[in-house]
Amino acid sequence: MLSKIPFKMENLSEEQLNREILRIGLIAELDAINLYEQLASLTNDEKIKAIFLDVAREEKTHVGEFLTLLLMNDEEQEDELEEGKEEVEELFQEEEE
């Protein structure tokens, strides 16, 4: 279920290592969100469901924190994220026409 770290840390510069650490944090938080939302969907107990969904929401905040830090430390990632956003907006505009 949980992702494995796919690199050898000793081969990376400090800058590269910091970016990879942030990406691993993002992956872990996304895994947690998926897990908690799936568990919430399995129960009929509204109290249990509410707690799992609340914790999943908190993990989404963590995603925002790690993503913000990643974008501050990886200019290419920031540019590509913006490029992806523009591509999606273009596709939706074409569908509306």
Please describe what this structure looks like.
With 97 residues, the chain is mainly alpha-helical. The protein has one domain. The protein has three helices and no strands. Helix 2 crosses helix 3. The longest helix has 29 residues, at 14-42. The chain starts with 13 loop residues before the first helix and ends with a helix.
Compact overview of the structure:
This protein is mostly helical.
Care to count the β-strands? 0
What Rg do the Cα atoms give? Answer: 17 Å
Based on Cα principal axes, name the global outline: flat
Please count the helical segments: 3
Distance between the termini: 42 Å
Low-pLDDT residue intervals, each spanning 5 or more residues: none
Count of domain modules: 1
Order of helices and strands: HHH
The major beta sheet can be summarized as: none
Mean pLDDT: 91
As a percent range, the share of strand residues is under 5%
Helicity level, as a percent range?
A: over 70%
Structural class of the helices, strands and pairings?
A: mainly alpha
